[in-house]
Amino acid sequence: MVTALADPSLVVLDTQSIHVAVGVPATTTGRDAAKRVPGRKRCLAVDVLGLVVAVVVLAASTHENTAGIALLDQVAGQSGSVKKSLVDQGFKKRVVEHGKKHGIDVEIVERIPDDKGFVPQAKRWVVEQTNGILMFYRRLVRDYEHRPDSSRSRVFWAMTSVMSRRLTGATIASWRTA
Question: Which residue range or ranges hold the Transposase IS4-like domain (predicted)?
């Protein structure tokens, strides 16, 4: 018997800058100055299981605030059950204020200053894990799509595969296996 899962009450937001292919129009791309990546910014909102709730694809030059506001709008439009959101330090007060308009408490998770390199942060690691899982899909390693909406749909196609594997217990083939 399958039981219905409740809608999420907590989402985690993050962005990932990715390179684009040669034929992608320059009007939909930019350069992320902080990460020094020319391309697009893939913005995800995931629940505590790492399942994608909302996706926004923007030019890499877009600030995290703009991405966060767009994600919160999608999350609030799709699910009225979300009460809290966790974000990293790239998101600022504008996202927190915008979340209040939707009744979502946005908490900026502070990084420990002594940590060097990538250190998973409690509860926020799930979005990083989802970004890593998406890298198993060849069409998501680099953005080949001409339209950002097509890139967005590729994320949902990949997540459909992830959910199917989780439900069936199947594993993904790896180049490391013989």
Answer: 7-147
Lookup: tokens for 93: 């007060």
Decide if 82 contacts 52 (C-beta within 8 A): no
Structural domains of the chain sorted by starting position, each given as residue range(s) with its CATH number in brackets: 10-112+121-162 (3.30.420.10)
Tell me the β-bridge partners of 86. 12, 107
Instruction: Provide the residue count of the chain.
Output: 178
Nearest to 12 by CA among 82, 65, 79: 82
Task: Answer whether 26's CB lies under 8 Å from 99's CB.
Answer: no
Residues paired with 54 in a beta bridge: 45
**Residues 106, 21: Cα–Cα separation, whole Å:** 34
pTM, to two decimals: 0.83
Write out pLDDT tens, residues 36-94: 888 999 999 999 888 999 999 999 999 889 999 999 999 988 877 889 999 988 888 89
The string of DSSP letters for 73-117 reads HHHHHH-TT--EEEE-TTS-HHHHHHHHHTT-EEEEPPPPTT--S
